[in-house]
Amino acid sequence: MKTKVGFVLRLFALAGVLLAITVFASAQGGGGQARGPQAPPPPFSPTASDTEKTKDGDLKITPVNHAGVMFQLGNGTLYVDPVGNYSQLPKADVILITDIHGDHMAPDAVKTLEKAGTLVIAPPEVVKTVTEAKPLANGANEIIKLGGKNVKIEAVASYNLQRGPAAGQFYHTKGRGDGFILNVGGKRVYLAGDTECTPEMKALKNIDIAFLPMNLPFTMTPQEAADCVKVFKPKVVYPYHYRDNDPATEPQQFADALKGEKGIEVRMRNWY
């Protein structure tokens, strides 16, 4: 009898140990299980902005995070690729989304920024998820109002030429994502999105301000991005979208690669 009781007690003890291990693993997200509810990220509250003079007034440019940028003209506010907690930033008149990946497309952030009359513009693939968005395919353009002024939006193809998860595949296929050119009061502002140095980028003309990505394996190295800048020669260039490698060194590598290039200003800003 004592032997049976001892056996049963050992079984209960073993079951308790297994239960404890299961609970611990679940709490740690082990075994591929999703963790429980996480605290929301803190809201963005950027303070550093740049101001560009245009024929339609001052254009305020505010880096927010990663690929997210806020533009303000008069009382109008336009965002590109808002992702994260934008709850403390001004509501949007216009939102542009470049691609379907989660570091560019975030329906929750769009909902946070929307108000009555907000216009969302995105590639057709994004519209499948952000259904309120107006599709704008590569090569097309749209005239919008921002701060009471006309702003022309041009969609530029953004895609991979050589990089992908496997042979014959690309992280970003041609036709899926948009880069955008904003034509604001005589200034042309180019946001490249997820792309390598494509023929379309090299063919750009009269770009006053450019935002270029540099993260492997998905887009370009700092040297590749710099080499592309040397071709289309924007007057000002912001390195952005470099979180996936070394954000402490890659912008400087990019700036170093452009030293000696006349007429090109590199603006290093805090994106992370």
Number of helices: 6
Largest sheet, described in full?
7 strands, mixed
Rg over CA atoms, rounded to whole Å, is: 24 Å
Q: Shape from CA axes?
A: globular
Number of DSSP-assigned strands: 14
Class inferred from helices and paired strands: alpha/beta
Terminal Cα span: 67 Å
What fraction, in percent, of the residue positions are helical? 10-25%
Residue-averaged pLDDT, rounded?
Answer: 87
Strand order of the largest sheet: 1-2-3-4-5-6-7
Unreliably modeled segments:
1-9, 11-37
The sequence of SSEs as H and E is HEEEEEHEHEEEEEHEHEHE
Please report which band the strand proportion falls in: under 5%, 5-15%, 15-25%, 25-35%, 35-45% or over 45%.
Answer: 25-35%
Index terms:
alpha/beta, disordered N terminus, globular, 7-stranded mixed beta sheet, single chain, 272 residues, 6 helices
